[in-house]
Amino acid sequence: MTSGDGSGREPILRVATSLFAALGYDSTTTSQIAEAAGLSVEALTEEFGGKRELYLEIMERTYRAERASLEEVLTGASTATPEQTALLIHRIADHYLDFCLAHPEFPSLWMHRALSDASDLTELERRYIRPQVSYVQSVITPTVEARHLGPDVDLEYVFWSMVWSVHGFCQGGVLDENGDRQGPEDPDALRRFRIHLHRMIHRAAALPGSPP
C-alpha cells in the first residue's frame, strides 16, 4: 500500500497516535496498529518502515503542531511593562491548557515517556521538549532581566509546574467527595482548574496585580 500524495497516511497516523497515546509505545504492537487501520502488517511496514518510524513521525507531528500554536501566542507579544509580561504569561498558560484539551494525545504521549516508555528512543526530549522551553524562555528572559518579575523567581520551574499540572489534570482529573474522577470533560472541574492554574502561576512568578 503506497499512498503517493500521502493522503492515505493520515487515517493510519490518527489510528497509531490513538494507540500510542492510550497504551504507550512499548505496549503497542505493529499488528495492533495494522489491524486498527484495516491493513496488513506488510502494507503498514511498506508505508512507514515499522513501529519505530511511525512513532517518530507522530512525535514530530505533535511537536510541530504545538510549536505552531505556541508561536501564535508569542510572536510579536509585548513584554515592555510588568503588566504586559503578566498578561503574556497567563496567555501562555491558557494556550497550553487549551492545546492539551484540543489534542489529548499530546499530554498522554509525553506522560508515557515520563514513565520510561520508549526508553530506547533517547533523543526525543532534547529534540522536541527542550526547544519549546528555550523558545518560551527567550521571550520571557528579557523581562526577568528588566526585573518585571520577583527577584527570586525560577521561571523555568514556573513553566514546568504549569506543564505538570496541565498534564495531570488532563490525564487524571481530580477526585470529588465520592472518590470519582472529575476531568476536563466536566465543565465545572475545568473551570476550577483553570482558575487554580492562573492563581498558581501568578503567585509562583510573583506577577503584579491579581490573577485573571
Automatic annotation (TrEMBL):
Domain HTH tetR-type, residue spans: 6-66
This protein's UniProt keywords: DNA-binding
SUPFAM superfamilies: Homeodomain-like, Tetracyclin repressor-like, C-terminal domain
InterPro entries xref list: Homeodomain-like_sf, HTH-type_TetR-like_transc_reg, HTH_TetR, Tet_transcr_reg_TetR-rel_C_sf
DNA-binding span(s): 29-48
Domain of life: Bacteria
Pfam families xref list: TetR_N
Protein name (database record): TetR/AcrR family transcriptional regulator
